[in-house]
Amino acid sequence: MTTPDPDHDLLARLRDLPQQRTPPADGWARLSARLPPREPVQATTAPAVIVALRRRPLRRAWLPLGAALAAGLALFAVAPWRHDAVQAPAPGGLQLQANAMAAQYQQAVASLPAARAPEWQPALQELDRSVVQIRAAMAQDPRAAHLLAQLRRTYALRLELTRQAAQAAAGLTT
Predict the structure, then answer these.
(1) Residues 92, 143: contact at Cβ < 8 Å?
(2) Who's near 117: CB < 8 A, 6+ residues apart?
(3) Are the C-beta atoms of 158 and 131 separated by less than 8 Å?
(4) Distance in angstroms (rounded) separating the CA atoms of residues 165 and 124
(5) pTM for the whole structure
(6) What is the DSSP letter of 26?
(7) CA proximity to 102, closest of 133, 124, 135
(8) Contact predicate 138/147, CB 8 Å
(9) What average pLDDT is seen over the chain?
(10) How confident is the model at residue 16 (pLDDT cuts 50, 70, 90)?
């Protein structure tokens, strides 16, 4: 005895459904009968008065735009001369944090025992190059907080590798 396949039965029933269904002829009438009655809208306001406005010539519309454009060009023409006269700006908050972080890193490295492990030098030099590149990027965009976070991660990795190199040179295991 075989058990009926429910998927086959479902597919057969789906194929037997009509391809298109037409809505009942009295569908809208039945729907409107089921809706709550609407209250009529009373026209208590005075009829609107429409006033035609004069057309303004296009020449006047472009005048403020042209004045703004001329002022902007004058600002950019004068700005380079003023920029040359101004000294280098004071370091911003992120630059100060980066300088403090560099000083802390130097103190931490100085507290580690001095040891030269030649197999660790390529990785340490690569991290030093990364620090230089991040600091250069911070000089170009002093408000980029993500660069400070990247610098923090690079210093932490450099400090950890320096610690591991010192332990390896001393013959300790990490």
Answers:
(1) yes
(2) 165, 166, 168, 169
(3) yes
(4) 9
(5) 0.46
(6) T
(7) 135
(8) yes
(9) 78
(10) confident
pLDDT at 92 over 70: yes
Of the candidates 140, 27, 127, the one whose C-alpha atom is nearest the C-alpha of residue 94 is 140
> How far is Cα 43 from Cα 5, in angstroms, rounded to an integer?
66
Query: How far is 157 from 124, CA to CA, in rounded Å?
Result: 9
Contact 152, 135 (CB under 8 A): no
Alpha carbon of 156 to those of 56, 124, 130: distances in Å?
Answer: 67, 12, 12
Hey, what are 97's tokens?
A: 């944090």
Nearest by Cα to 153 from 127, 126, 133: 127
Q: Which two tokens stand for residue 2?
A: 């075989």
What's the first-to-final CA gap in the chain, in angstroms? 70
* Tens-place pLDDT, residues 28-81: 888 888 888 888 777 666 667 787 877 766 666 666 777 777 777 776 666 655
